[in-house]
Amino acid sequence: xxxxxxPEVMSNPLTNRGxxxxxxxxxxxxxxxxxxxxxxxxxxxxxxxxxxxHRQPDDLAKNVFLExxxxxxxxxxxxxxxxxxxxxxxxxxxxxxxxAITKYSHEYRRPRGxxxxxxxxxxxxxxxEALGLGPTDVDLLVVTDxxxxxxxxxxxxxxxQISVGKLAVYTAxxxxxxxxCIPVLLDVGTDNENLLNDPLYLGARHSRIxxxxxxxxVTTYLETVSxxxxxxxxxxxxxGPGNARRILKTYGARYRMFNDDMxxxxxxxxxxxxxxxxxxxxxxxxxRVVVFGAGTAGVGIADQLRESMILDGLDEKEATRRVxxxxxxxxxxxxxxxxRDYQQGYARSVSEVAGWAKDGPIDLLTTVRQVQPTILVGTxxxxxxxxxxxVTEMAKHVDRPVIFPLSNPTERIEAMPADLLAxxxxxxLTATGIPVDPVDLNGVRHVIGQANNALVxxxxxxxxxxSRAERxxxxxxxxxxxxxxxxxxPADGEDPLLPPVDNLRASSATIAVAVVHAAVxxxxxxxxxxxxxxxxxxxxxxxxxxSAEEGAQR
Length: 554
Fold this sequence. Notes:
By secondary structure, the chain is α/β, with parallel strands linked by helices. Helices cover 45% and strands 10% of the residues.
């Protein structure tokens, strides 16, 4: 029997509505006989899909199921995500997406996004022009070169799934219209030997290109997309530490761009710090910050906290002196020859720390003993690095120590909140990078907030899209952090420092309005007549349009 193909309206995930096509639509669109008799609406479809999802044996199988649904019916996919967002986030994004990325070339089903090869830079413009989208048709592009995927490293072309997953969160959490968003991969090769020797690997089969050729390729991408889509936000995700910061520093003032690993992580950590200082009553200008793990995320957090000190009255030099970075080689010193450019500004002089250690590097415990920090941040992925000695030493000098072990997953976290609270007699104010159950100590229940970037970047992106801000400014990032912090009131430290993700769409809308106001105050955007209504109007809802034809045109 010959194969009977599906009509375009059913094979296109943007227009397919499956059993929700009405009898009249089935006649008009020549779908008679192509569907079961019953007409089931979106609500019934979502219920059935949710039941099917829960019959999957594990989170990876759930991720595959959702991707297949995404390929069939985009509205239903986003309805499922939106209705169960807190449950779906770890399935469509971190941590499950990491496992899906490692298997991408072997589980490949269909392309999703734009794949750009450094070996054919002349194809960059052609690749976007082939989409047939005009200058006002695109709001957001998420691009990765996949050098530093989550906590699993270099995964080459497989990393396109990180862009796809990020956009899914933007849409589900903030209502960015999926048809106006583009996931992008910059395939510059990979240094992952397993991929290079895998006959099914789908990416460029050579080592990762660096230097001038790499920079020229990134420049070509930026120039192309900014000219084709002048209103779009350019989101950079999971680039290597050196490239991530350098690209942002080089181009951040010229293009409407945002790096979540640096700015997003820094902003959500700043939000947690703002909440903690509501409890401690100690202003930012009086903070002493130790960051353990001086990579992209750690330095991004240091930058955000330093910026808050400057806004609170310190000059840049004094604010910088209130931040200490510790990495695998110990406290960063200006005599170290292996410092990256973005670490050098925070390196301490050798004369300043003379006598801190008898010999060898200055470790975390010694740094804490000498600095007596008020805030301790962990982005090291070194499990257990915040030892009892480190924490109790900090707690000797600070009434309410603020401690953020942000590394994930669980096997890489610097310390668990239960230990931090036990070692400080319940005085620690903490937020983590992983979801953690409440901690009961001495008859008091401490609810632990998760420093999840999804609390920030969807609302920030929505605010940029609505305001058409020329660029993302420090004031806009600060406004996003304050909007997150304002959603909780941790009067005594028992309540979480950050809100849950249960009501993320409302939270994102609130953040977006704050970002719009900040963009206007900074002079990088023109105020809409009614920012609140403008944000609401911009938020796409996962519902079927009045007719299938309208869905095809959106």
